[in-house]
Design a protein that fits this description.
The complex is a heterodimer of chains A (343) and B (92).
Chain A: E1 6-8, H1 14-23, H2 37-45, E2 62-64, H3 66-76, H4 83-93, H5 100-105, E3 111-117, H6 120-124, H7 138-153, E4 176-178, H8 189-192, E5 201-207, E6 211-214, H9 221-232, H10 238-241, E7 246-250, H11 252-260, H12 265-275, E8 277-279, H13 285-293, E9 302-304, E10 312-316, E11 323-327, E12 336-339
Parallel strand pairs in A: 3-4, 7-10
Antiparallel strand pairs in A: 3-5, 5-12, 6-11, 7-11, 8-9
Chain B: E1 2-4, E2 9-11, E3 29-33, H1 37-54, E4 60-63, H2 73-82, E5 85-89
Parallel strand pairs in B: 3-4, 3-5
Classes of the chains: A alpha+beta (343), B alpha/beta (92).
């Protein structure tokens, strides 16, 4: 009797394997590593014992077999030491507050963002410095990609049948970075999310790709906040009418200037809540009707971005240069933080 | 070579409600909207045409309470028990 979930297939070279995977609809369009039984079992053997449990994944309602989860991690290029972080992210997106079904089936281009905090960043070589949103770092690339493959292959969020995104986004391939605590003047993001500094944590959010905030001209925190507020005041963002969380990723130079001028994280959140306002006349009449149907009315002659300062998550990541990023979310979701098994 | 199927899992054991099976033609059909404005418009057109061309009247209408979340299972169970068929519109 054959083992469930194990397939005997002919030996295939890299190009043949690539085609074989695509014919079965298992891939994301990029080459994958064959999830051979020995590679998958080696990955599972390295796992710590304090693993989260996995329920049915929507929209397929399939309860994933642990070997299948590990197989997706192998396909993504993960090493055994990467898997606990992938599993923590998977546990995060399964929490009700994340709204996995809605975020996978929507026409919105959201993707599962993973922000990593704590000591696992160094252990895995995760990048929270220069080009942290971009290519070039294996851990960033494969951890985000593993979660995306799990959601494609096990949750069934395959476009175009179930993932109905109008345009999608490049972040759907992989979307993972580390916070940069070494260059942050404030308490680490993971600690502000309620964890100890020596705990490793992932925070997941169904998010758009980063929107760049370029400010080379301002030399004060006040000036930088003016530019950030202007970038956030977008009439086309889900956060205007669906509301929900959004993320500000400050580059270290902007963060340093803000801190020098006395700005705390809480003060930044309050200031941006007050200043990131969308003039009513920047919103079309039809869209104003749509906002009203969602129960959203302007505050005076402006619309607000989400419901209050607490919806804006602030952290530091990136390298040298005068750029930061605003990351709007799907809206009907929450940022969920989960401890990485094994610390 | 032996590989692990990356799609392998077990179907969840959640109970499903039997679909109503012995209803007369009237009252058998529900139009179910994802609650976006386009979906409701589309379904109203479908309902009008079913009435005009097929004589199907007494068509039910339901909508998800939130366009950004999946349909609530209790609501789906209720509709499955009440109707034999549903036309689902996901138009934006």
């Amino acid at each position: 009797m054959s083992d469930p979930g194990v397939l005997e297939i002919p030996d295939l070279g890299p190009a043949e394997w690539f085609s074989w995977v695509e014919e079965r609809g298992w891939g994301d369009g990029l080459p994958t590593v064959p999830p051979t039984e020995d590679l998958v079992d080696a990955m599972l053997a390295a796992l710590p014992s304090d693993l989260p449990e996995f329920g049915p994944l929507p929209p397929s309602r399939l309860v994933p077999a642990p070997r299948a989860v590990a197989a997706n991690a192998v396909m993504a290029g993960c090493r055994p030491l990467d898997l606990p972080t992938v599993l923590a992210a998977l546990a995060g997106v399964q929490q009700d507050a994340y709204n996995l079904h809605g975020t996978l089936a929507t026409t919105h281009p959201c993707a599962p963002l993973i922000v990593v905090s704590g000591p696992v960043r160094e252990r895995l070589g995760l990048n929270g410095a220069g080009n942290c949103f971009g290519s070039g770092t294996r851990a960033n690339a494969v951890i985000g990609r593993a979660l995306s493959l799990i959601l494609l292959n096990l949750a069934g969020a395959r476009p175009p049948a179930m993932d109905r995104s109008t345009q999608g986004s490049p972040a759907k391939y992989t979307y993972c970075f580390a916070e940069n605590t070494g260059d942050s003047p404030w308490e680490p993001f993971g600690v502000r999310r309620g964890f100890d500094a020596d705990e490793s944590v992932v925070t997941v959010l169904a998010a758009e790709p980063p929107h760049n905030i370029n400010d080379h001209g301002s030399t004060t925190g006040e000036g930088i906040l003016t530019t950030i507020a202007g970038t956030m005041a977008q009439p086309g963002s889900n956060n205007v009418y669906v509301r929900g969380p959004h993320l500000l990723v400050l580059g270290p130079e902007h963060a340093t200037t803000l801190h020098r001028d006395g700005w705390t994280v809480e003060a930044i959140r309050r200031a941006l809540w007050e200043r990131a306002r969308i003039p009513v006349d920047a919103v079309s009449e039809g869209n104003r009707r749509q906002f009203t149907e969602w129960g959203i009315e302007p505050d005076g002659d402006h619309y607000t971005v989400s419901t209050g300062p607490e919806q804006l998550q602030v952290l530091v990541a990136g390298g040298a240069g005068k750029h930061s990023a605003w990351i709007p979310s799907f809206g009907a979701t929450e940022a969920v933080s989960v401890r990485v098994p094994g610390g | 070579m032996r590989i692990i199927d990356p799609t392998y899992g077990t179907p969840s054991e959640e109970a499903s409600t039997a679909v109503a099976g012995d209803r007369p033609p009237a009252g058998t059909l529900c139009l179910f909207s994802n609650s976006k404005p386009g979906a409701s418009d589309l379904l109203r057109g479908v309902g009008d045409q079913l009435g005009a061309e097929r004589g199907i009247l007494d068509v039910g209408f339901a909508a998800k309470p939130n366009a950004a979340a999946g349909a609530d299972e209790d609501q789906l169970d209720h509709l499955a028990a009440r109707y034999r068929m549903a036309v689902v519109a996901i138009g934006d």
